[in-house]
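User: Hi! I'm working on a homework problem where we have to compare a predicted structure to a textbook description. Could you give me the structure for the chain below?
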Amino acid sequence: MLEMRPDCERCGTDLPADEGGAFICSFECTFCADCAEALDERCPNCGGELLDRPARVGAALKKHPASTKRHFQG
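Assistant: Happy to help. Predicted structure tokens:
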């Protein structure tokens, strides 16, 4: 199950689990759309491809809430 990180680790933008706009690599590093574009859809941590993160909504989100641990180092 995806961790559903709450923020872009490059700029700190909030990325709610129940909305689109987040991009992840296979290690779940998470970036907003603007940062993913600026990074040419490549993860700066592992070099992997950044892809759209699926949203988690409704009962699934309630049963399996998103992470609250922020990763932006600002």
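For your comparison, note the following. Helices lie at 33-38, 58-63. The longest strand covers residues 22-24. Good luck with the assignment!
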